[in-house]
DNA sequence: CGACTTTGACCGGCGC
DNA sequence: GCGCCGGTCAAAGTCG
């Protein structure tokens, strides 16, 4: 399984919206000079990039972008098309796809990379063997009530929430996105010296999770994977914090022309590419950290992305 | 003292 | 069936 590149993000809407790409050719464009793009190529990423600016300033309007993200324009059925999609939405596997060798994620979509760098794996294995070889039995007097929450019926596969993955050029692993997150785990990533962190939204009844890892090929790139949909607005208290990191204008759709603090990548499936092919579609949103970008009227990135996970309560 | 992080252990899925 | 592996739990530690 590890030989086959996996879809970072799969969404039928991409097929539905293929006219967007075929009509404009934007998805077929070669990117402009992109810092670090070679790393993505070497990772097996599709070399078709476009800048987020191009995307936003191009013919794609908010609805198109929303559709590209899997949003319905109304945003009240954010993932309805996903849920109704009979095809496997395997974004959930980008971080490993569950156990069983599904360990290849977007960090290692390329088998040659997987086979060529094993240092992290070795470390992890030794660590694991240490742990697995010495099962600790003393804590609860042998009672394994620790994992009661994970109990589920036999044969009932846990349903994965739809996921979105973003690649962000940043020195900070955990990027502020306006929501409150609690870290609940960290794991060594196979074939990578960088660990993967697991976060959960701290808001009650919100089941959204977030996974953050750093690309071992391009350590300046942070890969953030969101899973699920927020059922609440962004905490007001955090808007300020986020605004401290991101320009305030990013949170006010009325204001245009923010300066993004870092390159921002959005990974999406490549148009027309499916099946065994590497369907990863990377967009380079910002090539130059210091460059100013004009965002169109339909909102700013930071408004778009959180809204992707906002689901109205029934 | 509450919220959050760290970290070792465990669970379950999957491939062999 | 076994082992690997990603994901999660939860106790302990840290921080403000």
TrEMBL record:
Gene Ontology terms, MF aspect: DNA-binding transcription factor activity; sequence-specific DNA binding
Pfam family, one: WRKY
Region (Disordered): 74-166
Compositional bias annotation for Basic and acidic residues: 127-146
GO cellular component terms listed in the entry, alphabetical order: nucleus
InterPro entries registered for this protein in UniProt: WRKY_dom (IPR003657), WRKY_dom_sf (IPR036576), WRKY_plant (IPR044810)
PROSITE patterns on file: WRKY (PS50811)
Keyword DNA-binding applies: yes
UniProt-recorded name of the protein: WRKY domain-containing protein
Organism: Lithocarpus litseifolius
């Amino acid at each position: 399984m590890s030989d086959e590149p996996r879809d970072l993000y799969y969404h039928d809407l991409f097929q539905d919206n293929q006219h967007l790409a075929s009509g404009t050719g934007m998805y077929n464009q070669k990117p402009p000079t992109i810092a670090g793009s070679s790393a993505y190529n070497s990772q097996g990423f599709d070399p078709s990039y476009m800048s987020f600016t191009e995307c936003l300033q191009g013919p794609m309007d908010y609805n198109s972008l929303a559709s590209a993200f899997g949003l319905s324009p109304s945003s009240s059925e954010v993932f309805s098309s996903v849920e109704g999609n009979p095809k496997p939405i395997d974004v959930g596997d980008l971080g490993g796809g569950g156990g069983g060798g599904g360990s290849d994620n977007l960090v290692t979509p390329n088998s040659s990379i997987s086979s060529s760098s094993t240092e992290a794996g070795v470390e992890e294995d030794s660590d694991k063997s240490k742990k697995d070889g010495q099962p600790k039995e003393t804590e609860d007097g042998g009672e394994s009530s620790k994992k009661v929450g994970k109990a589920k019926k036999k044969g009932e596969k846990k349903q994965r929430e739809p996921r979105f993955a973003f690649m962000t050029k940043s020195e900070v692993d955990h990027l502020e996105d306006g929501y409150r997150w609690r870290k609940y785990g960290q794991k060594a990533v196979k074939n990578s010296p960088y660990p993967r962190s697991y976060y959960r939204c701290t808001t009650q009844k919100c089941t959204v999770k977030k996974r953050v890892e750093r690309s071992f090929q391009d350590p300046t790139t942070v890969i953030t994977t969101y899973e699920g949909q927020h059922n609440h607005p962004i905490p007001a208290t955090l808007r300020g914090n986020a605004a401290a990191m991101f320009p305030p204008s990013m949170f006010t759709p009325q204001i245009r022309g923010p300066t993004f603090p870092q390159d921002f990548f959005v990974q999406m499936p490549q148009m027309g590419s499916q099946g065994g092919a590497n369907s990863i579609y990377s967009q380079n949103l910002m090539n130059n950290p210091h460059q100013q970008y004009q965002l169109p009227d339909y909102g700013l990135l930071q408004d778009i992305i959180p809204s992707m996970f906002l689901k109205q309560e029934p």
